[in-house]
Design goal:
Elements (H helix, E strand, L loop, with lengths): L12 E8 L5 E9 L1 H11 L8 H4 L5 H12 L5 E5 L4 E7 L8 E7 L1 H18 L4 E6 L5 E6 L1 H6 L4 H11 L10 H10 L8 E7 L5 E13 L2 E10 L1 H19 L1 H4 L2 E4 L1 E4 L4 E4 L2 E4 L3 E3 L3 E3 L1 H8 L4 H23 L4 E6 L1 H5 L3 H12 L6 E5 L8 H13 L3 E4 L8 H7 L4 E4 L1 H4 L6 H15 L4 E4 L5 H6 L7 E2 L10 H8 L2
Parallel strand pairs: 14-17, 17-18, 18-19, 19-20, 20-21, 21-22
Antiparallel strand pairs: 1-2, 1-5, 3-4, 4-5, 6-7, 6-10, 8-9, 9-10, 11-14, 12-13, 12-22, 15-16
Helix pairs in contact: 11-13
């Protein structure tokens, strides 16, 4: 019923009282009076419900804060507060009706949704302006038209004009025409589909400046939907210098490809030692080595240019090329020797990609090369992908019958720890540890201890850098299974090696 002795107003207002369960806990709020304006809105919002909650516990009409305030105002002096009603997307301002007798409480209501919208939108745009990025804020209209809302000073500098000129240019020629023609389709697709063709939110494109220069940029797109409006916040990173560097690397790579008869050079490796029969030149397999034939410097070894290429994304493509070419050449050797073992080097860059095993399996299937005739060498840098991750890769290789070798054993920062932690099949000791064994007793002792320790963990030990018969004789007494070096042969192209040892 309507309380007596209360002044009622013909504005949006209502008075309510609490309803309790038999145990004294609050059950709900019952509306006792509603002004005509509130009643009209109430029917639209609450479907003529006389209780503010069906509300409590089950309803989402009002947030927990609002319900808490209403309960508090039954027993305490009420004060004004704001709330958001998510079901109807309204922001309301509650102002308490004064001097109501207990247990009644009531409020005058003001719809401040449009004010909250303007305040929130202004705050959003202010934050965009203060971010300091090389960026453009674009608004998509309901008809699909794109309008530039804001350009940063950094964007204007990149486009070789003032901020006002940049805005005028975007409004004049249009958003897309500041991008070179070939790059417009992926930009348009990104803005419509909200994702690039590769599934990312980035594109590398060329922009056309106000002075008609072309700038390579990496563009990152963020899509913002709020206030019933749609925005695209695009940040740019100038990568023109990097693209020039990329072109130089591609030129270098092209040079490598044109001279890949050198990249197919194979050095004798894994020469099986049979001490009882004094047979030292039974070929067990070959290690593939890539060279770069340069017009100025001549034949450049991998130890010189590989560390440089490993710092650039182009190495992944080169790594795939080595896998494919090595296995294709390996098939030629298998025609002459079914027991031939191919050895390929693996880089940290290839392992970090996350799809090395899939790539390897692809080339095994494409070339028909048998996995059990393949061995892969891991250098000390491979440890830096994480021991657990490296261990899982090695285990995946073993499941396919592929042998694993620690390269440059004894010379890395922690190759012994590498050996102890990873389940590899063999180790390969480089020429730095073997080259002085003829003249230096300490070098001989070091190599002897190293091979004995390695023999505790693996069955196969290879020593590189064997350059003469004297070194070969000394190594008879060491715990090694294969030898490699110029004593047997310098690196040879594939066909020359086949001609020399299999013809």
């Amino acid at each position: 019923m309507r309380p007596d002795n209360i002044e009622y107003h013909d504005i949006s207002s209502f008075i309510y009282e609490p309803v309790y369960d038999s145990d004294g806990t609050l059950k709900d709020f019952r509306i006792l009076y509603a002004s005509d304006i509130f009643a009209r809105d109430w029917v639209a919002i609450y479907h003529n419900e006389d209780y503010l909650g069906a509300l409590l516990k089950e309803s989402t009409l009002m947030d927990d804060y609002s319900l808490e305030m209403m309960e508090r105002f039954i027993t305490q002096t009420p004060h004004a507060f704001m709330t958001y009603m998510p079901m109807v997307n309204l922001h309301l301002y509650f102002e308490p009706i004064p001097d109501l007798p207990a247990p009644y409480a009531g409020f005058y209501l003001t719809n401040i949704t449009s004010h909250a919208y303007r305040d929130t939108r202004d705050h959003f745009l202010r934050n965009i302006r203060q971010m300091g990025n090389n960026a453009v804020l674009i608004q998509r209209q309901d008809d699909g038209h794109l309008d530039a809302i804001f350009v940063s000073p950094e964007y204007a500098r990149m486009m070789e004009c003032s901020e006002a000129e940049a805005m005028a240019r975007l409004s004049g020629i249009g958003i897309f025409k500041t991008t070179v023609a070939d790059d417009r389709p992926p930009v348009r697709s990104m803005q419509e589909r909200r994702v690039a063709f590769d599934g990312s939110s980035r594109l590398t494109i060329q922009k056309v400046t106000a002075k008609h220069n072309k700038v390579w940029v990496n563009a990152h797109y963020a899509f913002i939907d709020d206030f019933d409006e749609h925005y695209i916040y695009c940040t740019y990173t100038d990568v023109t210098t990097l693209k020039a560097h990329e072109e130089r690397l591609r030129s270098t790579y092209s040079s490598l490809g044109n001279n890949f008869y050198q990249a197919g050079d194979l050095t004798l490796t894994n020469l099986r030692v049979n001490l009882t029969r004094n047979i030292f030149e039974e070929i067990n397999g070959a290690e593939a080595i890539i060279y770069w034939q340069d017009e100025r410097y001549g034949k450049v070894g991998p130890e010189t240019f590989m560390p440089v290429l490993e710092r650039d994304f182009i190495y992944e493509e080169l790594g795939d090329f080595i896998l494919e070419r090595g296995m294709s050449d390996g098939m030629r050797f298998l025609e002459h020797d079914p027991s031939f073992l191919l050895c390929l080097n693996v880089s940290r860059i290839q392992l970090e990609s996350g799809y090395f095993i899939d790539t390897l399996v692809h080339y095994l299937r494409a070339t028909g090369f048998p996995p059990r005739q393949l061995s892969l060498k891991f250098d000390d840098g491979c440890r830096f992908i994480g021991m657990e991750r490296l261990k899982s890769i090695i285990e995946a290789l073993h499941e396919r019958g592929i042998l694993t070798i620690i390269e440059d054993f004894g010379s890395g920062s922690d190759s012994i720890g590498f050996l102890r932690s990873e389940p590899v099949d063999a180790v390969s000791i480089n020429s730095q540890l073997s080259r002085d064994i003829e003249t230096d007793p300490k070098a001989r002792n070091t190599l002897d201890h190293l091979t004995r320790m390695a023999a505790e963990y693996v069955a196969h030990i290879n020593v590189k850098g064997v350059s003469n018969l004297r070194m070969r004789e000394i190594l008879r007494d060491f715990r090694v299974t294969t030898l490699q070096g110029s004593c047997f042969s310098d690196p040879l192209p594939r066909d020359a090696l086949i001609q020399r040892y299999y013809a």
